[in-house]
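Following up on my earlier message about zinc ion. Here are the inputs again, as you asked, copied directly from the submission form:
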Amino acid sequence: MEFYSSFASREDACKVFDEMSQKDTVAWNVLISCYLRNGRTRDVLMLFDNMKNEGVCEPDDVTCLLVTQACANLGALEFGEKVHRYIKERGYGTARNLSNSLISMYSRCGCLDKAYDVFKGIGEKNVISWSAMISGLAMNGFGRDAILAFEEMRKTGVIPDEQTFTGLLSACSHCGLVDEGMEFLNQMSKEFSIMPNVHHYGCVVDLLGRAGLLEQAYRVIISMKVKPDATIWRTLLGACRIHGHFTLGERVIEHLIELKAQEAGDYVLLLNIYSSTGSWEKVSELRKFLKDKGIQTTPGCSSIELKGIVHEFIVDDVSHPQKHEIYNKLDEINKQLKIAGYVAETTSELHDLGAEEKANALSYHSEKLALAFGVLVTRPGTTLRVTKNLRICIDCHNFAKFLSGVYNRQLIIRDRTRFHHFRDGHCSCNDYW
Ligand SMILES: [Zn+2]
Ligand SMILES: [Zn+2]
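Thanks, got it. Here's what our run produced:
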């Protein structure tokens, strides 16, 4: 059966799978892992259901592990919970790797209490269990708790690994703990002989960027022992946007170009750095350059999972069957939020490369549509979880903050780089992202 996994394309695997007369669990698992590797995560969920409904062979612990990973990638909590129930029913619950994967899944769905429940239930926690919990705490903004968990882990004699330090460093970054973060970076190589990789450095750059230490962050990247990747440069670019540092922003773009990794989104950030510093001449220069080069932005896309179904929205989406109700709801929300002091910002941030032309036109970003849909179809007080493919903009971030307060709802938005937990009018990122 091994040969399936060597199929380069999903189509090949699918074809072979369809032609098989006897589909056993291993064949299903190979197919599912093939979909997962190719980013067809929604189909993975469908396959899991099909496999169960066909009833010829049952999903085993490997299937569950793969599907849990798909749920984590999608932020599909309800489906994840369904898989978790299945795991318990089948008695797979004792497998430590499954539990570890469930911790990651719940954390990435922004559901930390459930992650912690799974964590507590593991008899002998290994370094993966601890790292999953530490990373979960860190990515959800509980930096200090992550450091406490690390101290507890050390007491139990478990030796940290690369993942543990990724979690710890991102924890420091979330809480702005510059000294502690630099100390962990030191400690990992000196005490545990773990050479920092590009992810570790990425956390440090984020940490320094957050603290406004941009030049120091730049020096960290330049002096790294590993080759900087596009992500780390993008992290610094994000910091330049927050702190309005356009000369460094330009230098960063040069590095991205050198890596041939520059994306439209990077230029949008640079445009925003220029506009936030009032450098309008540079704004129009850059616009012209992008137009000449034919560079276009990736459309934003947000998804929200309700009753186990993932709904996707794009900007100004009119494809949803309930579009009229959604837009009416959005109008109503806008009115309510305005009373509370929300001001829609269409000019302060350029949303896309064509923003100039429609600066005053009312445009709805996909996350607003997903949120309005969530408010529309769920009971008051229900937590809404939205996953977005790009960075959330200032206006949508503001909108979500007000929404969480006025409608008394917890909102969890996972954007391209991080989690935002909105509650009572505040966000866990402390307005830095
Ligand atoms: Zn937006
Ligand atoms: Zn936020």
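One observation from looking it over: Strands lie at 301-306, 309-314, 384-388, 411-414, 419-423, 426-427. Hope that helps, and feel free to reply on this thread.
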